[in-house]
Amino acid sequence: MPSPFSLEGQTALVTGASRGIGQAIAVALAQAGADVVCASTRRAGTDNTAVAVREAGRRAWQIETDLSTHDGAAGLAEAAEAEAGPISILVNNAGTIRRHPAVDFPLDDWTTVMRTNLDAAWLLSQALGRRMVERGGGAIVNVASLLSFQGGITVPAYTASKHAIAGLTKALANEWASENVRVNAVAPGYIATDNTQALQDDETRSRQILERIPAARWGDPADLGGAVVFLASPAAAYVHGHVLAVDGGWLAR
Predict the structure, then answer these.
(1) Which fold does the domain 11-243 belong to in CATH?
(2) pTM of the model
């Protein structure tokens, strides 16, 4: 019997696949048997990810696109299936963050964050989800955040976008679950990536964060891989509209 976690015969598209969480997810999907389309703002940025996917014995494609524009998101759906064939797994990981006090938050930064974090996920989910419905199955995994549940400080755009990602996940699951298209999300906790570098470098804030995490460590991007593989695999056949926290116990504290 095949493993319920096997992704053999599947092709995944992972956005923001150049490094950090996106790279770790792409490699984990490949190790579970999926071929992977690696998307990022620079094609060369996904070179290492593509090498790791191929070292896992799977095929890799690299696509350059700017997901802060609506045309970039719409074009990626077309380009991915033109190069790799039908996409059966979509991981909406690409994201960005801007930090300013709310009273001084620039509109341009707000727009960039919302387009990259939310609009791109919506446009890709709509385009590829339509095809998954037509083909009778597929899986979409969105990358949410602890700030899908909390407010944060000086990150109003990021928080708004991640709350919206959690809502979008549930809304799409309600429409597509009966079509055998599963839509779920993972909510990373404090993961050691470029987006959290400022927090890691702040000795006081980093200590406060670690004191709140029962696992007593910052997360590693690889910690997300297994959760995404689960949600993308037949093992999660009856899991719809769920936001799975991968946070070292932060929300339980």
Answers:
(1) Rossmann fold (3.40.50)
(2) 0.96
